Amino acid sequence: MSNRSQRAAKAAATTRRRMLQAALVTGGSAAVLAATSQLGAPYIGTAKAEGSTWKVQTSWPGGIGLQIFKDWCATIVEKTGGELAFQGFGAKDVVGDFQLFDAVKNGVLDAMNPFTIYWAGRMPASVFLTSYPAGLRNPHEWDVFYYGLGGLEMARELFAKQGMYYVGPIHHGPNIIHSKVPIRSIEDFKGRKMRLPGGMVAEIFQDIGAKTTLMPGSDIFPALEKGTIDVADYVGPAVNYALGFHQVTRFISMGPPGFMSLYQPVDLMDLTVGDRSWQALSPEMKQFVEMEVHVYSDLHHAAIQKADQEAWGKFAEAGTRVTRLSERDVEAFTKVAIPRWFNWANKDESAARVFKIQLDYMMSGSLGYVTPDAVAGQELKWS
User: Fold this and answer.
1) Residue of 383, 344, 372, 366 whose CA lies nearest to 141
2) Contact 278, 165 (CB under 8 A)
3) Do residue 94 and residue 235 come from a single domain?
4) Among the residues of the chain, which ranges form H helices?
5) Model pTM above 0.85
6) CA-based diameter of the chain, in Å?
7) pLDDT number for residue 154
8) Which of 76, 205, 237, 247 could potentially form a cystine with 86 if both were Cys, beta carbons 3.0 to 4.6 Å apart?
9) CB within 8 Å of 145: residues ≥ 6 apart
10) What is the CATH number of the domain that holds 119?
């Protein structure tokens, strides 16, 4: 990278949060979306005559999540001087959500922006690359894992075995639960027909008595409308309101104050690229994409959180009521979750390696979420 680009990168890193804060204060979501054309990795266009266009599909089916994603994609061509462009697609535009993995692996798509939790059935370790029940609770804790404790390198190793390059995690916020009946304790999930993303999350809700079913987010509204399910987890308030969940449910179930979601408090997305598309980039362009995704994560998260605050009022006007679980429920839920943590960690050596880093962090003086007594009798096959 040239000296000019290096200076621009330093300036962008110094000012991005200041500009984002100003955008949120003065213009709300629209200003944040406009900021995506100014913030991010610096202009890195080279003298290459030919450019390439990546087909990139997100798991967002609508709402502000899809809007932010498509607006961000549209900024790439200018930032790279035409050397790289992103053609953004919404959920199901090219393939179904659960077909994204194969579509990128086989070259139907160049890249994907999925909810990372979707691949637990293919790579057990990936269940620990995003939020899981009673695990790491806050966005900064996941940043510590990825950028301080080796999580990013582990994720890249996992996806490299599948012929893909994991660029980085993308924050959006916690998931919440919508229901047709009030959920005031974990006992109220017993017998409920509930949509969940599968994997460990579904197993833990099954352990407390829910009848779970797997479906992508775009199928939730019709399933609630038809009565196929009566409880559904999905993302945050803004997107869920845009998808019409207030029309087919009456309640939102939350954790105790300050603990928005017991089961997925930091639901991560990511950008993952097919190896052929990734290797076709110059070293400078690879660095640009990595920097851009890191900055986009901040923008994406902030804009969605701003929209979520606005959405709470809309739900209240629609008559939706919020119920909260108790600290006693947190303790009971954690007790159920811990054996499942170890079951998943013991599925293969990679899963055990990733989980061990997080377990040590959760048991450390920094967090203290897990005590030695809580994991007594649990063992890892690999350590």
Assistant:
1) 366
2) yes
3) no
4) 3-35, 63-79, 100-105, 139-148, 151-160, 199-207, 220-226, 237-242, 245-248, 275-279, 283-317, 327-345, 349-363
5) yes
6) 63
7) 98
8) 76
9) 136, 151, 357, 358, 361
10) 3.40.190.170
